[in-house]
Design a protein that fits this description.
The protein is an alpha/beta fold. A hairpin with a 2-residue loop joins strand 23 and strand 24. The N and C termini lie far apart (79 Å). The protein folds into 3 domains: 231 residues, Rossmann fold (3-Layer(aba) Sandwich), CATH 3.40.50.1820; 93 residues; 184 residues, no CATH class. The chain contains 12 helices and 27 strands.
């Protein structure tokens, strides 16, 4: 009887709770129009903001196209969203701001949302750490934001578009060309691309591109070079040049929400007839139905693959040791029949249900899948130096030799300097931790890259890994700087012994491309996997890439032995 009474009471309680719950139609939902959201970043355990536009009459069951906008230098996500919809103001180039109250500055414009032209798109603009460019941490933020949007909304993956202005226009080219199969089309406006982007222009062979520039822009010549290059390589190039306009061509490019109309023409084609793909990094090793499985470190790898008929593919590669063709789903592929593949002139006839792989063996191509060894360079374990600060990382100074207070303070100051992400654009919103070697926690070894200052004698974390690391600076060697990256426990260790990597050169080091962050970590992009210099970076003993098994090349090892400042393991 007691059981029956308890059951009845339980049923009554559950019924009351259900009655008190809000109806699905009345549940809390995001309002339509522009607003701010955030995602949690594992880079530095922070919430990162982004602006999002939600269409009027939003339907949760419907898939929506997505437009991603990348803001320019000294701007932010809220200003970026306004500019995307053609109601954004200039960045201080004139006093009257089109689409805003006269004499309104950027700070005032950031505080509210003006009316937007209604579009049936979801649009999103990340803060991406401020004026940080769109490589490394900021680049990861863009993709983390997209993942957050996918978790919140139904995104039409065949209609994801990318655009941005100035620094963001350069980011549009970088993100668009490193991972071309993510996007249905891209639209760079007065772009300032980072170094090395032009080499990837051929990756636009299946991308429609719209390029905008004013003929009085200081970036005009850069845009003209891109126009010529993309005119040869892009699937389609539309070009708009505005006479008499300086570095504010976005006011015309995005006017009246034009870019949404232009994007509406295109859908992504995951299975184009031909794929042209160039890369230098395992991080970006795949496009459409071609994956590069192994390549030569530090060298440009290029693959061109084309269906010449049903189940017939011709492939030309250079700088590549192994690759895979993922054919399942391609309209020209029938898994019940053999596929003919010609690799650099060598013919193969193979049967496969989904993919076929090839690798070099003894200088000859064979039909076999390459499997990287545990110590091989691969995605997530390839370097170069800047990769160590492109994700979650901490800066660690040494206390192992019980230094006096003034020496300890100087070591901490050096690590703090490296961790200071203030750049030419002001405060960059990246907040890595700085700790002493004795304060590194077990979780830090599991989830973070370690930026280690000192030697095995002064830093206990370096000593902990000493037998596994490839080299060590002799503690008696004075006025040397040794910097190298090495994979460890699915993360990176970056060792900086002796002089710091940001030691000023006597002369001016020349770089091409546009670097915006102006931070100390940006200097790491000047090098590959390792560098040893004496007194200043003007006097480099050796520098370069580790080989595919993370071994020093013979010439670098000989240079280090001859100099004597470094002991090799």
């Amino acid at each position: 009887m007691r059981r029956i009474i308890f059951l009845i009471r339980s049923i009554i309680l559950v019924t009351l709770l259900i009655a008190l719950l809000p109806d699905a139609a009345d549940a809390q939902r995001l309002k339509p129009g522009p607003q701010d959201l955030s995602f949690f970043s594992s880079v530095d355990d922070t919430d990162q903001p982004y602006s999002v536009y939600i269409p009027e009459n939003f339907d949760e069951s419907k898939s929506y196209p997505l437009v991603v906008f990348l803001h320019g230098a000294w701007s932010n996500h809220r200003l970026g969203m306004r500019r995307l919809f053609g109601v954004g103001n200039s960045q201080g180039y004139d006093f009257i701001k089109p689409g805003n109250v006269p004499f309104e500055n950027d700070v005032e414009a950031t505080r509210y949302w003006p009316p937007f032209r209604p579009v049936d798109y979801i649009a999103a603009a990340p803060l991406a750490r401020g004026t940080a460019g769109y490589q490394g941490v900021a680049e990861q933020d863009v993709y983390d934001m997209i993942d957050d949007l996918r978790a919140r909304f139904h995104i039409d993956e065949e209609r994801v578009y990318l655009t941005g202005l100035s620094m963001g226009g350069g980011g549009t080219l970088w993100l668009g060309l490193t991972r071309p199969d993510v996007w249905a089309a891209i639209a760079p406006v007065c772009p300032a691309p980072p170094e090395g982007t032009m080499e990837l222009a051929g990756n636009a062979s299946n991308l429609p591109v719209h390029l905008f520039i004013g003929d009085k822009d200081f970036l005009f010549q850069t845009a003209i070079e891109w126009k010529g290059k993309l005119g040869e390589t892009a699937l389609r190039l539309d070009y708009a040049e505005y006479p008499g306009v300086g570095h504010n061509s976005w006011e015309w490019a995005y006017k009246d929400g034009f870019i949404f109309d232009w994007f509406s023409q295109f859908k992504r084609d995951l299975y184009p007839e031909k794929v042209s793909f160039t890369t230098k990094w395992f991080k970006y090793n795949s496009a459409y139905w071609v994956t590069i499985d192994d390549m030569i470190p530090g060298k440009t790898a290029t693959a061109e693959a084309k269906f010449t008929g049903p189940n017939a593919v011709t492939v030309t590669v250079s700088g590549i040791n192994a690759f895979t063709l993922r054919l399942e789903g391609h309209p020209q592929f029938n898994s019940s029949k053999k596929v003919s593949v010609n690799v650099n002139g060598k013919a193969f006839s193979v049967r496969s249900a989904d993919a076929v792989s090839f690798m070099l063996s003894g200088g000859n191509w064979i039909n076999s899948r390459f499997t990287p060894g545990l110590t091989s360079k691969q995605k997530g374990a390839e370097g170069p130096l800047h990769a160590a600060v492109a994700g979650s990382h901490i800066y660690v100074y040494g206390t192992a030799d019980n230094p006096p207070a003034d020496v300890l303070a100087e070591r901490r100051r050096q690590a703090m300097a490296a961790a200071d992400w203030n750049g030419m654009g002001g405060r960059i919103m990246v907040f890595p931790r700085v700790v002493a070697d004795r304060d590194v926690r077990p979780s830090d070894y599991v989830r973070s890259n370690l930026i280690l200052f000192g030697t095995r004698e002064t830093n206990s974390v370096i000593e902990h890994f000493a037998d596994k690391l490839p080299m060590h600076l002799d503690p008696k060697a004075e006025n040397y700087g040794l910097v190298y990256i090495f994979p460890m426990n699915r993360h990176y260790i970056l060792v900086n012994s002796g002089l710091p990597w940001w030691t000023p050169p006597k002369g001016q080091t020349t770089r091409t491309g546009y670097a915006f962050s102006g931070t100390i970590v940006e200097i790491l992009k000047m090098y590959q996997d390792f560098v040893l210099f004496r007194e200043t970076p003007d006097d480099i003993i050796t520098r370069g890439c580790f080989d595919n098994n993370w071994k020093l090349p013979a010439d670098a090892a000989e240079a280090l032995k001859a100099d004597g400042a470094v002991k090799l393991n």
